[in-house]
């Protein structure tokens, strides 16, 4: 179950107003993804409606909105996983690094090596910790043992779990706690050196302490990766994201800087949602 927590926009507004004005100019960031007029149907269900949304590099973009509004569908469209559902029909474009991922000649395998995904429930393979992380590089043809060891170590370090597992690399991953398993899954994702990491409610099955660890990790990872995270937890979106897109009934109501969304949103529906009036 997701933890839906209401957010107090007044408190956030006050916090922003009290911050001393800084004259730092945002460096323009390149869009990793550009979604243009995207529509998606599951059979007769129109799940995504005319979505236009840029995702910028080295940022955390949070996707928020009530249950059934299309958050997971959208994130699974970014790596074309959604097409595993037979009834899916799509129109519009998603440009990843300026190439339309729906083009006939686009290689979906390549997209999946550039875009990693972390799911709601940690899903390690029933293998050792080492094998979980080495799996992706092996599939990509890396056989050199020394290199594999290095990749595993770097990935586990990148996912802030190395210290906890370095002495038990050859034990089964199922022996790890839920929070450790989720960080292992993040390490598995890092091992293929992705460009983007998609996270679908990655902390909803975790306790507060493990949640905090993953949140800190996300902040660290955005230095090198672009991250899209679906979350039901408003405080989490406010804490860790740079941009927030509010989805409602398959539409993007608002996509803005996170501070802005949580203090002075443009649309009343955004304000109603973040202040817990519905959801
Ligand atoms: N495999 C599917 N087949 C048919 N309809 C689907 C399928 N998956 C999702 N839908 C429908 O698409 C709409 C969007 O669902 P989606 O799971 O993307 O919403 P969500 O915002 O992620 O919800 P939640 O927060 O509950 O996970 C819903 O109406 C849902 O019932």
UniProtKB/TrEMBL annotation:
It comes from Salipaludibacillus neizhouensis. GO terms for cellular component: membrane. InterPro entries: AAA+_ATPase, ABC_transporter-like_ATP-bd, ABC_transporter-like_CS, P-loop_NTPase, PstB-like. The keyword ATP-binding applies. PANTHER family: ABC TRANSPORTER I FAMILY MEMBER 17. Residues 33-274 form the ABC transporter domain. CDD domains: ABC_PstB_phosphate_transporter. This is Phosphate ABC transporter ATP-binding protein. The keyword Electron transport does not apply. GO terms for biological process: phosphate ion transmembrane transport. Pfam families: ABC_tran. Residues 1-29 are annotated as: Disordered. Keywords: ATP-binding, Nucleotide-binding, Transport. GO terms for molecular function: ATP binding; ATP hydrolysis activity; phosphate transmembrane transporter activity.
């Amino acid at each position: 179950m997701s933890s839906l927590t209401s957010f107090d926009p007044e408190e956030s507004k006050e916090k922003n107003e009290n911050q001393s004005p800084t004259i730092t100019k945002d460096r323009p960031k390149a869009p990793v993804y550009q979604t243009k007029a995207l529509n998606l149907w599951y059979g007769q269900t129109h799940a995504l409606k005319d979505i236009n949304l840029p995702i910028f590099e080295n940022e955390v973009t949070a996707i928020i909105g009530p249950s059934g509004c299309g958050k997971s569908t959208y994130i699974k469209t970014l790596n074309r996983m959604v097409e595993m559902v037979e009834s899916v029909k799509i129109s519009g474009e998603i440009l990843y690094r300026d190439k339309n991922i729906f083009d006939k000649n686009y290689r979906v395998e390549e997209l999946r090596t550039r875009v990693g995904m972390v799911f709601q429930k940690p899903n390690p393979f029933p293998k050792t910790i080492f094998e979980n992380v080495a799996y992706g590089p092996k599939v990509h043809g890396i056989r050199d043992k020394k290199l594999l060891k290095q990749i595993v170590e770097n990935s586990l370090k990148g996912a802030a779990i190395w210290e906890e597992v370095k002495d038990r690399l050859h034990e089964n991953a199922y022996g790890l706690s839920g929070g450790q398993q989720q960080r292992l899954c993040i390490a598995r994702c890092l091992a293929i050196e992705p460009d983007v990491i998609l996270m679908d409610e990655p902390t909803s099955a975790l306790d507060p302490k493990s949640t905090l660890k993953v949140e800190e990790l996300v902040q660290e990872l955005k230095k090198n990766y672009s991250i899209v995270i679906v979350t039901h937890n408003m405080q989490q979106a406010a804490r860790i994201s740079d941009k927030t897109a509010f989805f409602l009934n398959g539409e993007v109501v608002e996509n803005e800087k996170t501070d802005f969304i949580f203090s002075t949103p443009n649309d009343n529906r955004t304000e109603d949602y973040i202040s817990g009036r519905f959801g």
